[in-house]
Structures are given as structure tokens and as C-alpha cells.
Amino acid sequence: MKLRNKAAVLLLLALAALLLVLLSLRAGRAEPRMLPARPSSAPRRHRATAAPAKAAPGTQRRRRLRPRPEAGRRSAASLEKLARRPGDLSRSFQNVLPPELWIQLAVVACGSRLEETLVMLKSAVLFSHRKILFHIFTEEALKPEFDKQLREWPDSYTKKFEHRIYPITFSVGNPQEWKKLFKPCAAQRLFLPVILKDVDSLLYVDTDVLFLRPVDDIWKLLRHFNSTQLAAMAPEHEIPKIGWYSRFARHPFYGAAGLNSGVMLMNLTRIRSTQFKNSMMPTDLAWEDMLYPLYQKYKNAITWGDQDLLNIIFYFNPECLYVFPCHWNYRPDHCMYGSNCKEAEREGVSVLHGNRGVYHEDKQPTFRALYEAIRDFPFQDNLFQSMYYPLQLKFLETVHTLCGRIPQVFLKQIEKTMKRVYEKHVIIRVGPDRRH
Ligand SMILES: *[C@@H]1O[C@H](CO)[C@@H](O)[C@H](O)[C@H]1NC(C)=O
Ligand SMILES: *[C@@H]1O[C@H](CO)[C@@H](O)[C@H](O)[C@H]1NC(C)=O
């Protein structure tokens, strides 16, 4: 059994290597300076010993530089190289892109969530195309550290986003009571439509979320809303029989298995202008006016804080919700009892959600491997060499777990994304040369 799994993973690695060879042939036609094609046996050997077949001089120099200097300390040469990087060509485009076209990403980070949040933001910046505005809600004590660390990222990445840091505030009711609801600060999310008055739409994510493909792709779903939809989430579970809400909830919840709010798209304009049906008043209520009565009514019945309140709201207002498939909010629940997220099997995981602290312990090594690969990726490096190969090696060690048995599900999107980033890189670098 174990052997067969290992064989399957190796086959997968061989396929990935084949893909790279094809890619290199394709790009090689356009330009000889290319990513080295990796022999199919390479992943089994240690990375450092696998000599690239036809590494360009630049690539070799880069390899010798490892371990990479930390972001921020960069040589003049690397700065110059950076200036020729793909992101920089589109910089002028980014600068003229009006702020209303930027992606708006919100997160609420309190307590020990600083590193996790920065890794999430890093994953957003690494793979996205469009400029992003980060709205970071955090405690006073964490603010300077967020500022400092975000400014230390290399220019080519800091150009791709701007960030705003906000204190935790609650506009209605008793602030202390809201703060105690669920984990520290989580109820903050319910107030975003009220606080971010100038923002039309927003992607809210928990701190333990990682983007494995451009944020642009999930952002596009906002345009798929029909005229009554104003928020989008994924189901809490794919199989109601073993889901939490269907078995334990003592309050109304959306659909057959409830909603998970860890990844949530919101059209704030619509949330602010809609009157919501509810169980507290005979009349419909505006979002802002509904929150506190809702909380008062259900506070003794709710377990998961603001997520439960959202489930109650959309139970009474189902026409307001757009349900997106589970690959946009992929959790251990989707594989730890066997694979049950069919869309992820087809599409690959698009957004990973390592809830229950799985990035920081050993129970779900696949989730941890992805977290560490993104956390440890040196910004300037080649994505395949410094993220994808190490990740594949780490995945070989996870085949004994239920989630580790389906590595292709975890790797499909990230591989596609890297291919796209890489192709963009080649095309942009080749473009000007060709005109001579
Ligand atoms: C949000 O809804 C408003 C009002 O219907 C609409 O004008 C706006 O374009 C929507 N935003 C997005 C990103 O779809
Ligand atoms: C929008 O979609 C939701 C969910 O599918 C549905 O309940 C609602 O009736 C739709 N609204 C309109 C105006 O078609």
C-alpha cells in the first residue's frame, strides 16, 4: 500500500519534470536562456547534487548564492537584475490603474498571528497580477511589526501592493463583548462594511489562508453575482452527515452543511444598501442595525462566533449568497477522512485554509509543507527551483497521511501558476530583444 503510494508520487514527479522539459523546449525556441530541464530522476536526489542540464550562466550564479541573502539586503547586481524583471514592466501599468480597480484584501490579525498573516500576504503578492490594497486590522502592539516587515520586502513586490493598518474597532454594541466572541478580534470582520465605507468590494480571509493561484482569479467571481447576491463563501463541509453544523448546531445555518467564512467575498456596497430578513424584528434591518440584536439573540447558542452569525444571516437571506466550490477554501476536512472535495480533484486547490493550527503542528504535514515552502521562499529566486522542487520533496514524506495521498490535488494550481509566472517572465524578457 505504502509502496504503491510512493510509486504514484514518483510518477507524478516524473510527469512534472516532463512538463518542465516541454516548457523549456517551448520557451527555449524563443530564447536560449532558460530554466534548466530537470532529469526525471532528479527529485529523488538531493537538490544540491542535481546538476542542471544546460543552465545559463545567470542561473548558476544564482544557485551559488544560496543561502539567499535576506530580503532588503541586495547587491547592486541583483537590483539591476530586478529592474529587468517581469513585474517591473507592468509597473507603469500598475501605477495608472485607478484604485477602484485594485483588489481589496482584508485580514484581522491578533495575538500570535503575525507570521501567519505575513505568509498569507506573501502568497497573495507572489502570484497575483493586479495591484492589491491590504486592509490589516490588528492590535496596537502588532502594528509596527507589520509595517516594518512589509517594507522589507523587495521593491518588485512592494510595488504590487499598498497596505493600511487599522485598530480593532466595533461600531455598535459593547466592544468588550464583541472581542470575547470566538478568538480575539474575529468579530471585527462583521463590521467591515461599516468601517470601510469607501470600499466597494472586499475579499476577507482568515490569517491561516494561502493563495496558490492569483488572487485575481477569485476576485473575478464578484462579477458572477446575480442582482441579489452580495457575499460569497464555500460550504463548511461537503458531506452534511459528517459536518459540524448538521450534527451539532443549535441555531439556524445556511444550506445542508453550513458555510465556512475563512474565505469570503463581499460586495460592501450591496451589503450597506440591503435590508435583511431576520428573526428578531418583523421588519427587515440594515446590516449595521442587525448585528447586535442578532448577537444578543443567539449568543448562548453559537460556538464559532462570527461564522455562526453569518450562517444565521444567510439562512434567512439565502438569495444574497453566492456559494463557491470547495477548492477556493480547502481545509483538512476535505482530505483527512478521505478526499471529498470533488472540485479540488478536478481543479486543484486554489486557496488553502489551514485551520485548526495545522501549519504549526505535525498532524497534517501536507498543509505544513505548503506553508513552509511559501514562508521560506526567498523572494528573488526562481519559483520552480526554490519553491516547487523543495515542496515536491517534502510531499514525498507525507504519503503516509490521507491528505498526502493526493499530492496532485495540492500541487496542480501552484504548478499552473508558476508556469504562468514563468512564461510571462520569458515572454517579457524576450519581447524587446526580438525587435532588434
Ligand atoms: C457591487 O455592487 C454594486 C451595486 O450593485 C455595483 O455597482 C458594483 O459594480 C459591484 N461591485 C463589483 C466588484 O461587482
Ligand atoms: C441569485 O442566486 C441565488 C442563489 O442561487 C438565488 O437564490 C436568487 O434567487 C438569485 N437571484 C435572482 C434575482 O435571480
UniProtKB/TrEMBL annotation:
Catalysed conversion reaction: 3-O-(beta-D-glucosyl)-L-seryl-[EGF-like domain protein] + UDP-alpha-D-xylose = 3-O-[alpha-D-xylosyl-(1->3)-beta-D-glucosyl]-L-seryl-[EGF-like domain protein] + UDP + H(+)
Positions of the UniProt region annotated as Disordered: 34-79
Primary residence: membrane
Enzyme class, broadest EC rank: transferase
Secretion signal span: 1-30
GO BP terms: protein O-linked glycosylation via N-acetyl-galactosamine
GO molecular function, one term: UDP-D-xylose:beta-D-glucoside alpha-1,3-D-xylosyltransferase activity
Pfam families, sorted: Glyco_transf_8 (PF01501)
Compartments where located: Membrane
Gene3D superfamilies reported in the protein's UniProt record: Spore Coat Polysaccharide Biosynthesis Protein SpsA, Chain A
Keywords assigned: Glycoprotein, Glycosyltransferase, Membrane, Signal, Signal-anchor, Transferase, Transmembrane, Transmembrane helix
Catalytic activity, EC: 2.4.2.42
GO cellular component: membrane
Membrane topology listed for this record: Single-pass type II membrane protein
Superkingdom: Eukaryota
Described purpose of this protein according to its UniProt entry: Glycosyltransferase which elongates the O-linked glucose attached to EGF-like repeats in the extracellular domain of Notch proteins by catalyzing the addition of xylose.
Family from the record: Belongs to the glycosyltransferase 8 family.
Name of the protein in its database record: UDP-D-xylose:beta-D-glucoside alpha-1,3-D-xylosyltransferase
Organism of derivation: Chrysochloris asiatica (Cape golden mole)
Gene: GXYLT2
